[in-house]
Design brief:
The protein has one domain. 76% of the residues lie in helices and 0% in strands. The protein contains 3 helices and no strands.
Length: 75
């Protein structure tokens, strides 16, 4: 019985982690677009899209949430 609840907890944590990465990426993308609008313009030209800074950051945050490093550095 404990393993089912542990599995549900892991799935919930992964889901929340992905959502938070998407939201944080969107906010950072919005801030970057405010400070450096040419970055978003260049990314849109490369990808041939018309995304806002928030949308670009959210996409990058979403995909980036699946590529986390499992290595840790010890000082």
């Amino acid at each position: 019985m404990s393993t089912v609840s542990d599995l549900i907890a892991v799935i919930a944590l992964l889901f929340i982690g992905t959502l938070s990465s998407t939201l944080m990426g969107g906010v950072v993308g919005w801030i970057v677009e405010l400070a450096f609008p040419f970055v978003n313009t260049t990314l849109n030209q490369i990808a041939q899209t018309q995304l806002t800074g928030f949308e670009t950051g959210a996409v990058l945050g979403f995909f980036g949430s699946f590529f986390r490093s499992s290595l840790s550095t010890k000082s």
